[in-house]
Amino acid sequence: MTIPRRLDWSSLDGAGRRAWLDGLRPPEPEADVDAILTDVRTRGDAALRELTARFDGADFEDPWLDVESADGSVTSELQTALSRAADAIRRYHADQRDSLRGDRRVRTAPGVTAWRRWQPLERIGAYVPGGRAAYPSSVLMLGIPAALAGVDEVVLATPPNPDGSVHPAIVAAARIAGVRRILRAGGAQAVAALAYGTASVPAVDKIFGAGNAWVTAAKRAVSSRVAIDMPAGPSECVILADADADPDLVALDLLAQAEHGPDSVAIVVSDAPALLDAVAARLPALAATLATGERALATVERHGAAVLVADLDAGLEVVDAVAAEHVSLQCADAEARAARVRNAGALFIGAWSPIAAGDYATGTNHVLPTGGAARAWGGVGVDAFGRWIEVQRLTPAGVAGIAATVDAIARGEGLPAHGASVLARAERAGSAA
Known about the structure:
By secondary structure, the protein is α/β, with parallel strands linked by helices. 46% of the residues lie in helices and 17% in strands.
């Protein structure tokens, strides 16, 4: 079998294309997740403790870990790298923060002024996955923008080790981001605790962060009660490459996303059969050089694809159809083609812009929509940690000036009290004039 499997886009009809796209989305364990959510909502801390013991092998009464007293010992190399990454993240997101400042007041009619006021959230939940790897970068990607936005409290949740500890790199990143304590819980049970609250865990206003299918399903399920950032599940990439692309670089980018886990999606799209052949030929050899290579190659075999298209315009059609978390353009006129991409969580323009750079060091946020959600959602930004409040102020002359408009529309909608509330003020304004 060719790894990744070859797919001829032009030979598929609409039903065939939809079937392939649907197969990229891992099924969500809704029934199991609902049971966990109900258990935590009903029994609170007792359920959280039992589920943490069952899934993570850690049993403790107090689910909290104090960041300052916890072990955050990492190598000087990693400490320096985290600090540099944090600087880039802070610089990029501070620019977003600055755009939220100030009231842009608009005079919509004589005596009528309207504007929007930015208001940060009070408390947010930041979920950082565990499992096959530790993700200190995700701590920075959530904690730093939250602080810049002015969020009062960040509740960081991450799966503990069996001894109850948290990976030192997570602790080190939490210190850099200004997070004070860590909730030692993962999976759907952590999402439930953040959404519903328990005796020891305060409910949050919004839940952020990526996770596996269980976490994604749990976030969807609680979204009627608490806001969520987006559906953010297993990692995805689509690479649009032409005949001149370097097959080694394309293959390494596929492996980089596939090493996240068995549900990751890694796709290369090209109008050059020889390029697809070369990528397939290089994947096993390159995987053999990586500690994670065996599992990454298995993921590419399971969820990868080499999609042959008639030309790069058709390739852009595939890119938009998948609506992937990461889209890399390793082809001629990459920037011009990138401008035509409508559906992507993040774009990486040219062969010198590896996806992994955005994961760690360019400053852009790597918490991105997956599973086709990039059609409607974007990545996490400072604005996600707050909301706009619509504000208006009217003078007596202003309310008198719009009274007839309000009354006519209100009567048209069958809501006469709306009109009466404005007409009464207009009458008083006239009497006072």
